[in-house]
Every structure is written in C-alpha cells, then in structure tokens.
Amino acid sequence: MRRYFNNPEIKKSSISFLLIMLVFLLCNSAIINGYNRKLKSDYVKVFSNITAKLVETDPKLEKEIVPLLTREVTMDEEKIGREILREYGLTESLDNSLFPYIKGSFRGMELSILCAGFILTALLFILNYFQYGYFYESMRVFSSAAKQIVEGDYNLKLSEEKEGDLSKLTKSFNSMGEVIRGNIQALNKEKRFLVDLLSDISHQLKTPLSTMILYNDILLNKDLTKEQQITFLKNNENQLNRMSWLILNLLKLAKIDANAIELEIEKQSLNETIEETVEILESKAVQLKVKVEFIQEDIVYLKHDRLWLQEALINIVKNGIEHAGEDGRINISIEDNPIYTRIIISNTGEAIPEEELTHIFKRFYRGKRVQKSDSVGIGLSLAKSIIERHGGYIEVISRPSEETKFIITFLKY
After folding, report:
1. 100-150 and 8-57 helices cross at what angle (nearest 10)?
2. Does the domain formed by 266-411 have CATH 3.30.830.10?
3. Cα separations (Å) of 97 from 32, 43, 73, 104?
4. Which segments within 127-273 are labelled E, that is strand?
5. Residue 224 and residue 212: Cα distance in Å, rounded?
6. What does the pLDDT average to over 239-266?
7. Rounded CA gap, 354 and 408, in Å?
8. How much is the pLDDT for 385?
9. Strands 290-295 and 328-336
10. Which residue ranges traverse the bilayer (predicted)?
C-alpha cells in the first residue's frame, strides 16, 4: 500500500476523490436535514389542521388532543387509527400525489439527490479524464522518445520526477538510452578499429608482397646462376618470415584492443616472468653484443598473466637491445612498496629525441634514428596495450648522455 501511494499522481487523484466524496456527503447531509425540516413543517401543518377542526367542533378536546400529538402512540391505538383511515381509503399504497404535503417534499428531495448525483458523476468524470489523460500523455512521450531513439537520436533524455513508479520508468528509459548509445558507440568504435586494422595490414604487407612478386618474376624470367637463385629465394624467405611475424603481432594487438582475450590473472613470481624473458632474448643479445642483466633483491609477487606480460617485456627489452649499440647494456630492476610495483628497463645507446617521446607507443611509428629497414613499429604499441590490460601504465624517460628508461607501474588498490 505504501509503494502504491509513493506515486504523486496517485496521491493527487486520491485526495481529489476524497474531496469530491466529502462534498457529496455534505450535500446529501444538507439535503436530508432540509427534508427533515420540511417534513416536520408538514407534520405540524397536518396536526394544526386536525386540531383546529376538532377544537372547533368540541373546545373541550383541546387539552386532550395536544398531549396526544407529542407522544408516541401505542400499538393498539395505531391499529385502531389505521382501521379507521383504511375505511376512507387512506393507506401506505395510496399514490404520493394524493398526499399534498408529502408530494412536494418528496419531489424536492428527489431533485436534490439527482442534482447531487449528477454533479458527483461530472466531477468523477473530470477527475478520471485528467488522471488518465496525464498517463496517456506520458505514454505518448515515451512512444515519441522511443521512436526518436530508433531513428538514431541517442542523446534524448526525458525529465525525471522526484519519486514514484513513473519516475522509475523514466529513469529506466533514460538508462536504456544510455546503454544503447554506449553500445552503438562501441560498435562504431569496433567498425573503425576493423577498418584501421585492415588498412594497417594491407599497408604493411604491400611492400614485402611487391618485393616477393618482383623476386619471383626474376626467378621465372631470368637466367640466373644457382647462387643468384639461392640469394633471391633467401630474400623471399626473409620477406615471408617478416610477413608471418607482422600478421601474428597484428592479430595479437587486434585481440588486445578489441578485448577479445581473457587474461589468466593470478598471483605469481614477477622475478620468474622477467628471468624467462631474459632467457628468450639471450641469443639476440649475444648476436648484437649487448649485455642484459636482471638486478633482483627480493622475490616480488604480482597478479598477472605470465605469457602476455612476457610478450610485453620481450618487445620492450628487444627494442632496448636493438638500440643499445655494440657492447651496450640493458638493466632490469623491480621496485616494490605498499603503493605500487614497478619494473624499470634501462638501456644505453643514443637518447630518444624529446619530440618523439610522445609518439613511440603509436602503432607503426618509426623514429628517425631507426636504421633497420624491417622495423614496422608495432612492438612498443603491443607492449603498451598489454600493460594497460593488466591495469598498469608505461612511461619513458630519455635524456642526452643518460640511459633511456622504460618504467612500467602497477598500482596496488
């Protein structure tokens, strides 16, 4: 019952209904009181007429008649009187029109009750009209708003009352619009992402495919020595490996950006994750004559997906190895405190120009200092996406005559 009266519309209509019924009852009470006064007046008129006739006939009866008129008659007296009146045709079945005083009073009472009933009906009809008119107007507003949403106007928002079921419906409708708007925006974002991804793939594969087509044409149409053929075939093999690596990493990046992977987050040793990363890149570091050292003091545990976080670390350390220079050095360390866990990867070599620092994590960005022709600038972008999926963030500090530092921070909540 309390929930029912939480609606302001129900409160208003109930108060209006109670007021109308109160007015109706007061009117009926006034009509009945007026009828009683008229009935007493008619009662006095009848008795006055009878008394006058009797006293005129026999003045001695005056003192006997008046007391009889003000007291209740006995059953025997009433029976005798009814028998006398019946002999003259005066009974309850006699038509009202033959009772001169009752006829006027009854008609007045009938008309008064009919008028009061008509006024009550009219007021209830008006109350019903406005009440349901309000609800149907609200339904038309919802219908119009739903039509606008279907037509693409997702920013529409209905005004909300302070309380009541209609207000809850309005809030739910607005929430539904916000959810639909969010889903549409996410869908459009996914479409743009797919278009960009396809554009990136086609752009990155265009050059190696063109090179392979050229080499293949030379192999088919030119007379080449065996050594030359082997050279072209090895070049094609390099291009195929590059395309395979590129497609694999693009798919990884696409899955990360599209939230299409479920990370297996569990609390495990961060030290072991970094040690395995160093082992994976050991041959590359030896090849480029770069020393990679993991400086560790205590064992640090972090909630993370080992394989995916290794993927991010491999790309960052690999980038450092490629830019450390011959006889360069990569140092990896961990900082752990009650607020955050931080991985610091520093490398020697030429500093990153200040104007490039804000771009190095962009997809396919290649700095001016990059000498490798097969670098496509996707590794750091992939690393950043993986770290952010773990709830962390990455930043880079690079100054002339100082080591370049990649700082990965995971806050503890």
Report:
1. 170
2. no
3. 21, 17, 26, 9
4. 266-269
5. 16
6. 78
7. 19
8. 87
9. parallel
10. 111-130
Tens-digit pLDDT profile for residues 47-79: 777 778 777 777 777 777 777 766 776 787 778
How far lies 128's CA from each of 17, 25, 52, in Å?
A: 10, 20, 57
Nearest CA among 67, 92, 72, 71 for reference residue 82: 92
Residue 376: other Cβ atoms inside 10 A: 20
Residue 366's identity, in one-letter code, is R
Residue type, 288: L
Distance CA 401, CA 413 (A): 36
Q: Output the six-digit token pair for 233.
A: 């075939």
Six token digits for residue 21: 């019924």
The CA-based angle 292-296-299, given to 5 degrees, is 135
Q: C-alpha angle 67/71/76, rounded to 5°?
A: 105
Query: Is the pLDDT higher at 235 or at 17?
Result: 235
Q: Give the count of beta carbons closer than 10 Å to the beta carbon of residue 274.
A: 22
Helix (H) or strand (E) holding 401: none
Dihedral angle over CA of 56, 61, 65, 66, nearest 10: 80
The residue among 394, 404, 332 whose CA lies nearest residue 369 is 404
Give the C-alpha separation, 280 to 325, whole Å.
Answer: 19
Least confident of 16-25, 285-294, 342-351: 16-25
Q: Which CATH architecture has domain 179-257?
A: Orthogonal Bundle (1.10)
pTM of the complete model: 0.52
Q: Residue 373 has what pLDDT?
A: 44
| Domain ranges across the chain | 4-150, 179-257, 266-411
